[in-house]
Write a structure and sequence with these properties.
The chain has an eight-stranded mixed barrel. A four-stranded antiparallel β-sheet has the order 5-8-6-7. Strands 14-15 form a two-stranded antiparallel sheet. The radius of gyration is 44 Å and the shape is elongated. The longest helix has 18 residues, at about 15-30. Strand 9 and strand 10 form a beta hairpin. About 25% of the residues lie in helices and about 15% in strands. By secondary structure, it is an alpha+beta fold. Keywords: Cell shape, Cell wall biogenesis/degradation, Peptidoglycan synthesis, Signal, Transferase.
Length: about 550
């Protein structure tokens, strides 16, 4: 039953009308389920004092229902069923945002390297190294230094009977002062001396005596002297154009240095050539920087890598985004090539730019006959290793964009004169995905050197492992049974030493070369050396007869 609210008129007839309505309501409430009816408004002034007032029907007690459930409505037969109130409509829940998958690469973990601002290669390095070789020769003649137990491990403050032997070693190498008190304890002075020793040998300067430091301590003095003499021999004939700014990559250190005004502005972790694909010695200039470079696979790597891969997996080129081009630049399908032969070397294999490109996002051009260069790499996990000899001849540089920014100082930025190549501009240029070649306004000299032992102007000797086994080729006067320092397995016997190198090394080991030349005279150039015999091969300054021009 639906009741409408009716406004009754006020006046003399209102009391009677109101009483009738009240009587009717009471009757309806007794015969059916009571439905509350709103009370009609009655003027208080019009109603007489003795008029009966309508009584308000009692409200039925509502049953409690569980949330979300509707109680059925009871009705009498023959009467219309009241429409139950519609349940409140719940607002649709907002969909939870999809979990975003980050496309950012994980942070690159880099090996710990020296932060010494003294450059590896400087104009005085040849003479400094030559004199240091003579000093170590005196140590050898005096009996060298005793070894320490191979299993020795010490922390600061600890005591051990072998500590006096360690003190004597560090005193001979001038890491510890001669007036240091004798003791069997790793005191503060000895820990500081051990840190200096670790820095000179390219080891983490922790001040802890562990396996790597013990291994370096047990290298004989004769081996260290030979490293110095052999490195000086390799520097003979150098015409490197030292300038205010230059770049040096020391291959045994696997590092790259950006040198400015005689000090290292930044030293970078690097990955250099494998022992069987050695990085060559190079002296040239950096002329260009390439964003999003392509990579043309050299013939040597087509034979060594591509053809074996294609024989196992015919889809290898497609996976690596490498296209085959004929002599006219037309693309050739790999299925048209007989990979059981070496016919693929007659085609150009070029890898498209991208994250999986072997050169990464940046290449640093430095014209040279070995076709090697510095570049980025997608395999950044190798930068965390201590031994970083994994490339095929080129030098991979960690955080190469920082080196690029340093090289491009003074070169107009993307907006022309008045703009610069800062970090944002470099990232923006790479983000386009298009190749872009930037020519340096002023080329920067660069040198790849192989120095296993060298001296700096401050009178310190630095040593690195002879990874390529080249020190054994130097005709030093050390006995043939002197051990080497290579941390990688032995390689095949080295080829015969070239006459030019022999002549240079013979001059180095003689004591007459020690102080006979003033410091302001440059090392002798190749033309000043006697010509080799006609039957001998033409001398050239390379570390290997063949160096692969790959990454």
């Amino acid at each position: 039953m639906v009741l409408r609210q009716v406004a009754f008129p006020s006046g003399p007839r209102a009391p009677a009308l109101s009483a009738a309505v009240a009587l009717w309501l009471l009757t309806a409430a007794a015969s059916a389920e009571t439905v509350p009816v709103p009370q009609a408004p009655v003027s208080a002034a019009a109603a007489p004092a003795d008029a009966p007032r309508p009584t308000e029907p009692a409200k039925p007690e509502q049953a409690k229902t569980e949330p979300g459930k509707t109680e059925p409505v009871k009705t009498e037969p023959g009467k219309p069923t009241p429409t139950p109130p519609a349940p409140p409509t719940a607002e649709p829940a907002e969909p939870s945002p999809a979990k975003r998958v980050s496309r950012e690469l994980p942070p690159v973990v880099l090996a710990r390297i020296s932060q010494d601002p003294t450059p590896t290669l400087a104009p005085s390095t040849f003479l400094d190294t030559l004199r240091m070789a003579d000093r170590y020769q005196a140590i050898v003649q005096a009996g060298g230094w005793p070894g320490v137990p191979a299993t020795l491990s010490l922390k600061p403050g600890e005591r051990h009977p072998a500590v006096p032997v360690l003190r004597r070693h560090l005193t001979l190498t001038e890491d510890l002062g001669p007036d240091a008190p004798a003791s069997d304890q790793m005191d503060e002075a000895l820990v500081a001396a051990l840190r200096r020793y670790q820095v000179r040998h390219g080891l983490p300067d922790t001040g802890l005596l562990g396996p790597m430091t013990v291994k370096a301590l047990n290298v004989p003095a004769a081996t260290r002297q030979r490293q110095l003499a052999a490195s000086a021999a390799r520097l003979m004939g150098s015409r490197f154009a030292f300038g205010e700014r230059y770049v040096v990559a020391n291959i045994p250190s696997a590092t790259v240095e950006a040198v400015e005004r005689g000090a290292v502005a930044r030293r970078y972790v690097a990955v250099v050539g494998k022992p069987d694909r050695a990085s060559p010695a190079v002296e040239t200039r950096i002329t260009n920087v390439n964003f999003n470079p392509t990579w043309t696979v050299p013939v040597s790597l087509i034979k060594k890598d591509i053809i074996p891969h294609m024989r196992k997996d015919p889809g290898y080129l497609a996976k690596m985004h490498i296209r085959m081009l004929d002599g006219q630049g037309n693309e050739v399908q790999p299925t048209a090539i007989d990979w059981s032969t070496e016919k693929a070397v007659n085609y150009t294999l070029r890898q498209d730019p991208g994250f999986d490109n072997s050169l990464g996002q940046v290449r640093i051009d430095m014209p040279n006959r070995h076709a090697v260069y510095m570049h980025d790499t997608p395999s950044k996990g190798l930068f965390s290793r201590t031994a970083r000899f994994h490339s095929s001849g080129c030098v991979r540089v960690a955080e190469v964009k920082g080196l690029v920014a340093w090289l491009l100082e003074g070169t107009p930025g993307p907006g022309g004169p008045g703009t610069v190549w800062g970090p944002i501009e470099i990232e923006t240029g790479i983000a386009t995905g298009e190749r872009r070649d930037i020519k340096l306004v002023k080329p920067v000299p660069v040198a790849f050197v192989y120095l296993t032992g060298y001296a700096t102007p401050d009178g310190r000797a630095h040593f690195r492992d002879d990874v390529y086994g080249l020190d054994a080729e130097a005709p030093a006067k050390a006995s043939p049974d002197v051990p080497t320092t290579a941390s990688i397995g032995p390689r095949a016997p080295a080829p015969a030493v070239k006459p030019a190198a022999a002549a240079g090394a013979s001059a180095l080991v003689g004591k007459a070369a020690k102080d006979s030349r003033p410091a302001d005279i440059k090392p002798p150039v190749a033309e000043a050396k006697p010509a080799p015999p006609a039957s001998a091969p033409k001398p050239e300054r390379v570390l290997r007869p063949e160096a692969s021009p790959r990454t």
